[in-house]
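EI: anyone free to look at a 263-residue chain?
SC: sure, send it
EI:
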Amino acid sequence: MTGTGDPKWLDTALGAAGLAAFLALGEAVPRLGLVEADYFPPTSRIARALGAELADGAFWSALGATLTGWALGLAIAVGAGVVAGVVLSVVPHLREATASTVEFLRPIPSVALIPLAVLLYGTELRSVLLLVVYAAFWQVLIQVMYGVQDVDPVAEETARAYGLGTWARVRHVLWPTALPYVMTGVRLAASVALILTVTAELVIGAPGLGQEIAVAQASQAVPDLYALIVVTGLLGLVVNVGARSVERRALAWHQSVRGEVAL
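SC: here you go
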């Protein structure tokens, strides 16, 4: 059933109205003289700058570089995080032996590693990957470890009683329980990876949208600067929506997702 009373339609309408109001406010504030238009251009000027960027081949090259760094870093972080999380949780006493090391390394901000990344790899893609992987890895690792910890002890003992080996128990008992946690970690890691990709490009000067933002700032191309910031925001929105869509598909069998679809 659809219609004006449908909550989904209402949410969409409210979201569109909020966006329209925000854009109108962005247009009105500089034109009314509340802020300097040279530093905060009206929405229409930003839109024209965005159109010019979309017609420029250099913009698409920068976007491709950003997406490449993001995708590679996320893939490495997810693979390493899942494997490390399962191994640390399954191998006896390994989790306790590594707990202090994990708690020491995890709080270190990835941006603090920028000097090390530049020293090792300069402004190459590997510098971006070092920062992205380090930041996204912990999002996945911690969620996997929580998921493994949530395994039902009765199911685990039943699997042992039926003679299932270690990897059979991982596949049939541990993985279905941990998968919702894994998907949460992937969703968080996807957003963190994008943030670190743009940050690394901005600070290090690696090719990508971050570097384009730095160039626009240095050349005082303020409308272009805001246009590129809008692009990064839209990219973050697409990443978040895409990650949620993948999560719903991967967990279509899970009670939480079935309940969400039913609502």
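EI: The chain has a mean pLDDT of 86.
SC: 👍
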